[in-house]
Amino acid sequence: QVQLVESGGGLGQPGGSLSLSCAASGSNLGLYGMGWYRQAPGKQRELVATITSDGYANYEDSVKGRFTISRDNAKNTIYLQMNSLKSEDTAVYFCDARWVLAGKDYWGQGTQVTVSS
Fold it and tell me: Are 91 and 18 in contact (CB under 8 A)?
C-alpha cells in the first residue's frame, strides 16, 4: 500500500523553471519503477518521464534536454526538475509508482503547472 503526494506546482514563465516533488508513504519505494505523467485540458494523459529502481531514466521526446527525473530512495521521494518551460507544458502533473511483476500501481492526486507570460 503506497500513498503519493505531489507538490511544487504553480505558475511559471516561459523559459523559467519549476521543481516538482512526489513523497511516498505506506511502503518503501526501493522496488518500484516511478514515473511522471501529465494531462492538459481536453487532451489525453501522457507519459513525461520514468525512472527505474536503479536510476535508469527515459523521457518523452518533447521534454528531453529540458526536464530531469531523479529519485532519493532514502527519502522515499522522486523529483522532476523542469527547465526552459514552454506554454505547452501547462498541465496537471501526476506521480506514478509501479511494480508490474507484483501487480501494483499507485497514483498521486496531481499538481497543477501553469506556464504563462
Answer: no
